[in-house]
Amino acid sequence: MPTAPRRFPFGRLIFAVVAGFVLALAVGTGALFAYQGRYADRIYPGVTIAGVDVGGLDRAGARAAVEHGLAGFATGTIVVTASESTVRIPYAAVGRRADVDRLVDEAFAVGRTGDTVVRAADGVGSLVRGAAVAPSVVLDQTALTAAVAGAAAQVDAAPVDASAAATPTGFKTVASVAGRGIDRTALEAAITAALADPASPAEVAVTATLVPIEPTITDAEVADAVAAAGRMAADVVLVQGKETWTIPATTVRSWITFAPTTDGGYAATVAPDAPIATIVALAKKINRAPVEASFFFGKNSAVVGVSPGANGRSLDAAATTPLVVQAILARSAIDAPATPPSVALALTTTTPKLTTEQAKTAAPLMRKISSWTTYYEVSESNGFGNNISIPARDINGTVVAPGAVFDFWQSIGPVTYARGYRDGGAIINGHSQHTGALGGGICSTSTTLFNAVARAGYETLVKKNHYYYITRYPVGLDATVVISGTSVQTMSWRNDSKYPVLIQSSASPGVVTFALYTVAVNNAGAVGGGTKIPGSTNLSYQVANGRTVKFITSPKFNYRPASSSVSYTSSLSPGAVKVVEYADDGFDVSVTRTVSENGGIIHSDTWVSHYAQVNGLKLIGQ
User: CA 388 to CA 442: how far, in whole Å?
Assistant: First the structure.
């Protein structure tokens, strides 16, 4: 029986081939996966970035390699031409550099796209074939903006705003001048385009576009402001009732200035305090002192009537100033009236210390409460009496209201030749000068009044004795007054009672008297000499104003006797005699005054007087 033919086992072969392929693929794929895993956090070998080999490097290493290898992208210059100006900007100033982050990201992306097997194969392929990442550059936008601004600062010509200026007769407009400047946005775009290509040369030229820069303040705005200033610069009329005072236009013009406004405009204005000095000066013309009520006498020296007082007024400069400023600013409007309205003054009323009503109430009760008289020799030393009589007449009729202060120099008129004063005696450098000062001898007036006041028991404020003792005055109770340059010595006192005090004076050559009148509260009558205190030389006064005044005068101490000398001179005719200086002994003395009222002491004053020793000198002609 013939043998049956053997069949080829194709099925088994196919299975073996397939099985072998599967086995080989499994082995290769495993190797690929192992390769991929080895570079999980590194760039596959064979990858370059613009020629810089970064294969096998992690991200930090790749960054460092690219920054070093592509540092040349920051080297170069941009030459900006703007009209006739040229500005050079280094690449580094605009932050040109390799786009490192992007390039490293692209390098890491090689072999890491597609499915797992493809990514693994691409990773192996990069090793075999290599993979190149093309270069790219980037600019720092903040640095670019700053660099363009710096270039513009060298090229730009700033505009000149229009402005206004004062002239001797008004105001004028100073025209504006347009500026020019680089179009910064366009220049930034041009530089960005020129440097975007990594292959840009080491020097690129860019032309900047110049655009006009308009002034902030225009000619038209200034012209309007000047026109407004012209309307503002007119007389300002201040009014109070029927009285008017004018601030001239020239003065008003000097206050006007020009400035930009908060809304971007330009306007004429006046500073809030600009008029203050002028208004304060006007106050001297506007202010009016109150008139104190006073009294007048009958033939028997009794008070028989009242001279009425009147309110005064005082300009409130601080309140008036803004009113003036507002009035001037209101004129700036185009429709402002051609004749500006007047400005009502801000005034305060000042009232007299002694009103008419108070004087009328006091008049029937007024009586003399004290007086003092000084006798003197009429001579050139007192201006032949003028220097004593004139201030006495000035003070006559003065009323010192309750609480008010009497100051000698403030109570008399100016000491001038025009008023009748003459040169008189003065103590200069310790020696008498018979005609050494205008008004010399006036101290007889101040001393006489002081003694009347002291005996009435009122509060004394300032009192000073003479350099040496003058025998016509009560010892220790003289009150000198003098003005020498800025130095002022006065005599002053306060009416510390609740009733007005009227001062009456009488003066004739050789005698001056002061008497004080006030509301009498008792029948005390001693108004001059007082009552001698038993057993002493001291005095006590019972005053009709309800006060008791006692004076205790100490014995003289620190006594320094003076001497006299004779000198012969050819400046006098033979036998003629001239006393240059009288001898005056020096000594100290104190006077204590005690003032009581209603059983209690209200004043206790001790005046210590130091009188200098002055040696006498007599000249005899030979």
Answer: 5
b or e along 108-139 (b: 16 or more beta carbons within 10 Å of the residue's beta carbon)?
bebbeeeeeeebbbbbbbbbeeebebebbbbb
SS3 call for 15: helix
Note the maximum CA span of the chain. 212
Q: Which residue has tokens 């513009």?
A: 152
Q: What are phi and psi of 293, to 5 degrees?
A: -65, 150
pLDDT per residue over 384-420, tens digit each?
999 999 999 999 999 999 999 999 999 999 999 999 9
* Residue-range domain boundaries for the chain: 219-350, 356-621
What does the pLDDT look like over 42-81, one tens digit per residue?
A: 999 999 999 999 999 999 999 999 999 999 999 999 999 9
Q: HEC profile for 541-576?
A: EECCCCEEEEEEECCCEEEECCCEEEEEECCCCCCC
Distance in angstroms (rounded) separating the CA atoms of residues 133 and 52 = 9
Range 333-337, long-range pairs (CB < 8 A, 24+ positions): 333/228, 333/231, 334/228, 336/231
What are the strands of the beta sheet with 85-90, ordered from one edge?
85-90, 77-82, 203-207
CA-CA distance, 539 to 470, in Å (whole number)?
21
Q: Give the H/E segment covering residue 362.
A: helix 356-362
pTM: 0.61
User: In Å, how far from its chain's centre is CA 560?
Assistant: 57
Give the CB-side neighbour count of residue 186, counting CA atoms within 13 A.
11
Report d(CA 371, CA 450) in Å as an integer. 10
The Cα–Cα gap between 445 and 508 comes to: 12
What tens digit of pLDDT does each residue of 324-349 get?
999 999 999 999 998 889 999 999 99
Residue range 219-350 forms a domain whose CATH class is alpha beta
**Pairing mode, strands 47-49 and 131-133:** parallel
Residue 422 backbone phi and psi in degrees, to 5: -130, 170
What pLDDT digit, counting tens, does each position of 223-269 carry? 999 999 999 999 999 999 999 999 999 999 999 999 999 998 999 99
Closest CA to 410 of 491, 473, 297: 491
C-beta of residue 442 within 8 angstroms of C-beta of residue 391: yes
